[in-house]
Amino acid sequence: MTTLPNCPNCESTYTYEDRGLFVCPECGHEWSQEESTESTDAFVVKDSNGNILQDGDSVTVIKDLKVKGASNPIKQGTKVKNIRLVDSDHNIDCKIDGFGAMKLKSEFVKKL
C-alpha cells in the first residue's frame, strides 16, 4: 500500500488521489503529484549574515530593539539561547532575560 502525502495547507492525513490529483477532504485543497514532490522542503531561516538558523541555536541581537510597552529596549549584544523557529513575520520565538517571551525577526540577530 502506498502512502499519500499530507495536505500542504492543513497537514491533514486523510488525502486521496483522484484523476492524477491529490485531494484533501478537510479543506478542499487539490494539488498535483509534481507539486508535492518538489515543495516538500521546510522553510529556511537565515540570520543577518546569511547563516542558516535551527531550533535550539543561540543568537546575539545586532542592534537596539524597541519593545512596545517596555520602558527599556533590548540592547545590542544581548545573547538569546535556545531559539525556536516559526513560520511567520517574526520568525524566532525565544525567552530573553528581563523581558520574558519574545518574538524576533531573524534580520536583527546573528548566530553565535
Automatic annotation (TrEMBL):
Protein YjdM C-terminal domain residues: 45-111
Lineage: Bacteria, Bacillati, Bacillota, Bacilli, Lactobacillales
One Pfam family recorded for the sequence: YjdM
Protein name according to UniProt: Alkylphosphonate utilization protein
Domain of life: Bacteria
Record domain Protein YjdM N-terminal: where: 3-32
Family statement: Belongs to the YjdM family.
SUPFAM superfamilies: Prokaryotic SH3-related domain (SSF82057), Zinc beta-ribbon (SSF57783)
